[in-house]
Amino acid sequence: MGRVLPFVICLLFAPGIGATVLVPAEFREIVAGSETIAYTRVVDVRPEWAESRRQINTVVTADVISSYKGEAVRTVSFRVPGGQIGRYRSVTIGAPVFRRGDEAVLFLQSADGVAHVFGLNQGVFRVRLDPRSGRRIVVRPALMPSGDQPERVVRGDASRRAVDLDAFGAQLRAAMAAPGNQASGAR
């Protein structure tokens, strides 16, 4: 009992531990739940202190190359959890990391007037240059369900392959035009 009591006291006065649980969203949920959808190129990545210097967030600014949903603007700025300031680093599992020059189709929401990516990394569809064709391709997030039933992830599955940017735009417009989706058209 003498050894258990100090342990119990430490547990009672320990700071709270937070956790993030993220349920994968289907593509149509991501489209419907986003206020802004745009193909972008990152031009600035700036970490900043948050919560009285207990956490670091990163403010990302990106030029809008083409807008699919929401107000047509030239740039978007949004906040992602995590970042590094000097020797201090804050990491949020599942949060996207951006660098200047990154291209992505972003799915953004606003909370309290601050834009953020839908479902952490679920709302970031990276755009890369295909070395074979020279065309831009969209790489889907690793886990994206297509229904309510559990799915088996299979290496090389055609549904998980990168798709041409124009074809992705067509898929996006089809999802926005689906019944029950309040999405506005492409710009």
Approximately how much beta-strand content do the residues carry? 35-45%
Give the helix proportion (percent range). Answer: 10-25%
What is the fold named in CATH at topology level? OB fold (Dihydrolipoamide Acetyltransferase, E2P)
Q: What is the residue-averaged pLDDT? A: 84
Secondary-structure-based class equals alpha+beta
CATH class: Mainly Beta
Rg over CA atoms, rounded to whole Å, is 20 Å
- How many distinct beta strands? 10
Helices and strands, in N-to-C order? HHEEEEEEEEEEH
* Bulk shape: globular
List segments where confidence is low: pLDDT < 50 over at least 5 consecutive residues: 183-187
- How widely separated are the two ends? 69 Å
Any guess at the CATH architecture?
Beta Barrel
Helix segment count?
Answer: 3
Number of domains: 1
Q: Biggest sheet, open or closed, and with what strands and sense?
A: 8 strands, antiparallel
Short note summarizing the structure:
The chain is built from three helices and ten strands. The chain has 187 residues and is α+β, with helices and mostly antiparallel strands. It has one domain: OB fold (Dihydrolipoamide Acetyltransferase, E2P), CATH 2.40.50.120.
Structural description of this entry:
By secondary structure, the chain is α+β, with helices and mostly antiparallel strands. It has a single domain (21-143, 157-177), classed as OB fold (Dihydrolipoamide Acetyltransferase, E2P) (Beta Barrel). It has 3 helices and 10 strands, in the order H-H-E-E-E-E-E-E-E-E-E-E-H. It has helices at 4-13, 27-33, 165-177, and strands spanning 36-50, 55-69, 75-81, 83-85, 88-90, 103-111, 114-117, 124-129, 136-139, 163-164. Strands 1, 2, 3, 6, 7, 8, 9 and 10 form an 8-stranded antiparallel beta sheet that branches. Strand 8 (124-129) and strand 9 form a beta hairpin. The longest helix is centred in the last third of the chain and has 13 residues, at 165-177. Mean pLDDT is 84; it is low at 183-187.
